[in-house]
Write a structure and sequence with these properties.
about 230 residues; mainly alpha; Hypothetical protein af1432; two-stranded antiparallel sheet; 9 helices; 2 strands; about 50% helix; disordered N terminus
Length: about 230
């Protein structure tokens, strides 16, 4: 991801295969050959990322990637891992200069490559940063770019709702916020639009936005957007 939105207090997340991630159950299936387990990816993400808001961003992107993989008949585990780990190095190597070869995401990809991560996932991670110069030639890479900034905009929209719940967000409210340049300034609107175009879903932007909202709803607990409990006297 290029720029981050503001953070809110969050709690550490621990979940493995076969456990609930919010409302989403991660199936207890063995990792595909050459594919790290989700447990290993989550542990690496936690090792490098202390920010709960950034952790939950990656969980949001994971949810959206899994949903799009299912829609396109691709491997949800593979796509989900790309989403889960894509920003794991962002906090340590923030890359304010937007270097194509140093810091995020180049440094993270070097770490992952040394650990044996598959090249198609690495290329998708490089491609999600427009400044990397790596073309998004696979549908996985295109989907990662298409949902990355959009999940940030959806999260920001949910957090200004009285309930702070993604269940109270719809495509119309997100598009309205998207037009407000003063709202969630860290979200790159151009990337949202370009991502939808590259993925081939720009013809119905409302449907694309709602699709990602629905994916995030399934993981609402894990991403901290299930809503605040009613307070006595509120």
């Amino acid at each position: 991801m290029g720029r981050r939105t503001g953070s809110v207090p969050r709690r550490p997340l621990r979940a493995g295969r076969g456990q609930y991630i919010g409302c989403m159950t991660v199936p207890p299936l063995p990792a595909a050959p050459g594919l790290p387990s989700r447990d290993d990816a989550l542990a690496l993400m936690h090792e490098y990322t202390a920010s709960e808001s950034l952790r939950k961003h990656m969980l949001s992107v994971e949810a959206a990637m899994r949903a799009y993989a299912e829609r396109f008949g691709e491997d949800p585990e593979r796509w989900g891992l790309a989403g889960l780990i894509h920003d794991f190095d962002y906090e340590r190597f923030p890359n304010a200069a937007h270097s194509a070869t140093d810091e995020h995401p180049a440094e993270g990809v070097r770490i992952l490559r040394a650990r044996g991560w598959p090249e198609d996932v690495l290329q998708a991670i490089l491609g999600h940063a427009a400044y990397s110069g790596v073309p998004r030639t696979t549908r996985m890479a295109q989907a990662l770019f298409a949902v990355d900034e959009l999940t940030g905009l959806i999260t920001a929209t949910a957090l200004v709702k009285p309930t702070k719940s993604v269940h109270d967000v719809d495509a119309k409210s997100v598009k309205k916020k998207m037009k407000d340049k003063a709202f969630a300034k860290g979200v790159n609107r151009d990337d949202v639009l370009l991502g939808a175009k590259e993925l081939g879903v720009d013809g119905d932007m409302d449907a694309h936005i709602q699709f990602v909202i629905d994916a995030m709803r399934r993981s609402a607990d894990a991403i901290g957007l299930a809503g605040e409990p009613d307070r006595p006297g509120a």
